[in-house]
Design brief:
By secondary structure, this protein is mainly alpha-helical. It is built from 12 helices and no strands. Helix 4 crosses helix 12. This is Stage II sporulation protein M. Keywords: Membrane, Transmembrane, Transmembrane helix.
Length: 323
């Protein structure tokens, strides 16, 4: 059957079903489940015969909304919190892997720009990091302890201050997504040009490894989840620019909800990063193998939760739908 004929044949059913979902009509779970089964049948058909089509995207959205509504009509389980973190969010986040990749590439680009600008303009580092920080670090280098900045503040105060600041950055990335995603790109630009300048500064002083093994103990998670927060902002911007089959307002509301979930997911990771920066990074005397282990474990955790695990859940859900 041609796609146009398939759409014409079932369009009225889909619109009726969408109206039930959007208007929160009070129908029994059994009625909703019956409609859901019919939609999932259409979804399976579209996935087979019309891959990468607007029809498939539309039915995917309907099926997802229906699934959530069905389970909202049921009594909440005691493990709802666990379910969100382990199943619901990772599965939903699979849909935003493209935005995550874009946020990552933007971050790499601005890091490279920061490093290149620092290499070609001697005053650039000071303009980005500030004279106070640069002078203090130069003094620390002369005193034989380049990373002394991480030892100056009391552990708990540093942990709380860094964590709160990082969460603010994440919220800025998310909220500024309403500026068609341009605001999010601006926040990423500020942070990653600074990162590139910061790393080049130590490279120029012959301390790239010393700085990297220290900074990335906490920076691996911290920088990664800033990129993920950038993904949240791009999801919001994308929902405004490309509403697909939804009205622009409906698409925007969906984008805000999705972006907020992504930002919420970063909070525990920011807490971990803050703890590492406040209590662990200051121990610059630790052996290289331990620093490398912490960095590798942190990177593995981020990649698993935000990239590998969502893909696993998605493939599992597809297998279940086809049975």
């Amino acid at each position: 059957m041609r796609e146009a004929a398939f759409v014409k044949q079932n369009k009225d059913k889909w619109l009726k079903f969408e109206s039930v979902l959007l208007n929160n009509a009070q129908i029994t779970p059994d009625e909703l489940s019956g409609l859901y089964i019919e939609i999932t049948d259409h979804l399976s058909y579209a996935r087979t015969f019309y891959p990468n089509s607007q029809t498939l995207n539309y039915l995917n959205g309907l099926a997802s909304n229906a699934h959530q509504k069905i389970y909202k009509t049921k009594k909440e389980k005691k493990n709802r919190f666990y379910s969100f973190w382990v199943k619901e969010f990772p599965l939903e986040f699979y849909k935003y892997q493209r935005q995550l990749l874009i946020a990552f590439l933007i971050s790499v680009l601005f890091t490279a720009i920061g490093a290149y600008s620092s290499a070609t303009d001697g005053a650039f580092v000071r303009s980005i990091l500030g004279d106070g920080y640069v002078n203090m670090t130069l003094e620390n280098i002369e005193n034989g302890d380049p990373m002394a900045v991480y030892k100056k503040m009391e552990e708990t105060n540093m942990f709380l201050g860094i964590t709160i600041n990082n969460i603010k950055v994440a919220l800025y990335c998310f909220v500024f997504g309403v500026m068609l995603g341009i605001g999010t790109v601006f926040v990423l630009m500020q942070n990653f040009i600074m990162l590139g300048s910061f790393q080049y500064f130590f490279y120029e002083k012959g301390l790239l490894w010393e700085s990297a093994r220290t900074i990335w103990i906490h920076g691996t998670i911290e920088i990664s989840v800033i990129i993920i927060a950038g993904c949240a902002g791009l999801v919001v911007g994308n929902s405004i620019l490309f509403p697909k089959t939804y009205t622009r307002l409906t698409s925007f509301v969906r984008g805000i909800k999705a972006g907020l979930k992504i930002v919420i997911s970063t909070v525990p990771f920011f807490i971990i990063a803050g703890f590492l920066e406040g209590f662990v990074t200051r121990h610059t005397e630790m052996p290289d193998w331990l620093a490398i282990f912490i960095i590798a474990a942190s990177l593995s955790l981020i990649l698993f939760y935000y990239v590998i695990y969502p893909r696993q859940l998605y493939k599992k859900s597809i297998s279940t739908d086809e049975q």
